[in-house]
Fold this sequence. Notes:
The complex is a heterodimer of chains A (319) and B (379). Chain A is an alpha/beta fold and 319 residues long. Chain A has helices spanning 43-50, 72-78, 94-104, 109-122, 138-148, 168-183, 195-199, 219-227, 240-248, 276-288, 303-318, and strands at residues 5-14, 17-27, 32-36, 58-63, 66-67, 79-82, 156-159, 187-192, 204-209, 212-218, 229-236, 258-262, 265-273, 293-298. With 379 residues, chain B is mainly alpha-helical. In chain B, the strands form two sheets. In chain B, strands 1-2 form a two-stranded antiparallel ribbon. Chain B has a two-stranded antiparallel sheet with strand order 3-4. Chain B starts with a helix and ends with a helix. Mean pLDDT of chain B is 77; it is low at 234-240, 283-288, 293-307, 318-328 and 366-379.
Amino acid sequence: MTPIIETRGLVKRYDGELAVxxxxxxxxxxxxxGLVGPNGAGKTTTMRILATLLAPTAGEARxxxxxVTADPVEVRRRIGYMPDFYGVYDDLxxxxxxxxxxxxxxxxxxxxxxxxxxxxxxVGLAEKRDAYVEALSRGMRQRLCLAHTLVHDPQLxxxxxxxxxxxxxxxxxxxxxxxxLRGMGKTILVSSHILSEVAELCTSxxxxxxxxxxxxxxxxxxxxSLRATALLRIDxxxxxxxxxxxxxxxxxxGDVLAxxxxxxxxxxxxxxxxxxxxxxxxxxxxxxxxxxxxSFSQATSDxxxxxxKVTGNDEETAA
Amino acid sequence: xxxxxxxxxxxxxLREFGSSVSTIMSKELRSRFRGRxxxxxxxxxxxxxxxxxxGAYISAVPAASQPGLVGPDGMSIGxxxxxxxxxxxxxxxxxxxxxxxxxFLAPAFTTGAISLEREKATLDLLITTPLRPGAIVVxxxxxxxxxxxxxxxxxxxxxxxVLMYGGAAVQDIVRAQIVLFAAAIGFGVIGLFCxxxxxxxxxxxxxxxxxxxxxxxxxxxxxxxxxxxxxGTITEPFGPASRAPExxxxxxxxxxxxxxxxxxEITTGDMGRIMAEIRGTGxxxxxxxxxxxxxxxxxxxxKPVITDCPPNARCAAPPVPTAFDPRPLETxxxxxxxxxxxxxxxxxxxxxxxxxxxxxxLGFRLRRRHPTSAAGTGP
Lengths: 319, 379
């Protein structure tokens, strides 16, 4: 079966600077693929190439088997694209906004009215049908923009940071909508700089940094490989040096990355190679050895932090 | 491909293009004409136009009603001409004012067409739709011009007042409207091109208005200075032999309009003097087929003054001595040349704007390849 997205050695160079440095990406039909990486990693550039807004410097990108540079118009008919940063036409009403885009995709007039109602229902803006776009909140605009990507019932949705800048409640709403779209059988490429945000939604994830796809695959595999080098943050009230010495004897613990002490408390950051259960046994051992641990946490929620360590390690091994 | 499918495909392509243009237009017009603003502006405009016509009437009446008045060329203007003088004055004022208005308004509606979409980050959403970039540009242009065109058309009845007085004929009014339409399209396209070329609306506006100013005023001054340079003296620059290329003036809608107005002048007025300079008739001023010596004596008339011709009537001109007349002094010389030049300029800039809207490197094709030929190439 033809993959929905396929890129081979995709390279994009801006004024000599490499934004995308050879990405091979394959996304099959029905997959929800999360592109995760820090800001400036090349997520947006990759998505803009797939959305026919940028031409790649080298390599090729295909959507539904169609080369994005050879026939951008045919690609556009098959995708719905939501940029990370976009505006809306303030002076239109919500239904007019969707009607405009539906006409852009040559949706016949007879189908437009009913479809607009359905779409507004999906994104939860049904009662805002006659409101001016101007009057919508940021979260509502985001959902309206998402609705506009659906007017022509595309095979592929390319959503660049759909939850960025939203408050927690709006984030949850956005996630619910994406889940519903997954149920409708759409293939979705979604980007985020927070792994946990896409982890529960996506079927596959690609970790991208400095223009390279570092890891790509099923969400479970990625999570396992990331967890394997979790970053532990340990606050010790007793002698910090003794604690560091004790940790050094554990083969699963890497070199201490950061030490900071204030008001008699020492905070240590150490990489730990092992599943969550082993972290608990290590904590038990540490306390048994007489160290006063006031806080013991895994800094996994912030992807960027872990992630920079991971990519840093990758670079060291490469060097 | 058989011979019959080609035109049909071309026809369906044309229909698709038309529906794309109308999609853009309906959206643009919806936001432009929403609320009362457009109607208030139109009403104000017509009010001002009527006031100007009235002002021209007031100022022309005293001069026109003096019996036995003698024009600057020594020809007497009788009271019989009073009505025509008033009509001509109104026509002159309205035409020049409307042209100035078009020069101000047409770019104003288009300089934001593309750059505002870029600034408000709505252009990406538009480009990722299958709309042809050509349709986007043309739709934007037509909807921006719609209001200017509406203003011009709504002003026609006011211009038609002139017909009550005489002094300008129906064809003069038609000619003036042609200049207005051509200028509106040309200036609108210039604004659109600047909008597509320059990232920021503010800069695009500055560049567009500078260009419009250069075309309406600059070209004439460049032409004058050039001509003065050729003649070697600034005091008497307008000899018939040495003049700058008049093609420069084809870019100037004001010259085309001045010519139309000059051709309606009963005696030589301001417009007539400007045209005399441009036509290189030196001290000669021509009005229709009749030329007068306007230099205050000294130079012999190139066309003898016809004394037995009743005022404001068209009389056959005697043969013209070629030594004084390097070119035929036809009326309506600049109108078709200007209109053609502006049409060509508009077409070129529209095509260039289309090219600028397409993301770089994603091939600009006027006609799309047939979908099936591309879709089948996937692995």
